[in-house]
# Entry
Amino acid sequence: MTTAVLNIPRRRVSRDGCSGGRGRRATLEESLGATLVSARAGEPADCPLCPGTMRAADGSAVCDSCGSTLS
# Structure
């Protein structure tokens, strides 16, 4: 048996808008909220579940790769 390794590059995520500059990590709610706001504003946003991109769709954000939806 052989071992397979999947190398997925890490995405840099700016947490400045989520943390309020307090030097703490963003909560899950803040991170998902920032993704939804970015997608609704017409900006591509990283999917929290896969390497895909989330885009606005009827007030929600939908991943173009895995189909995950934030609303």
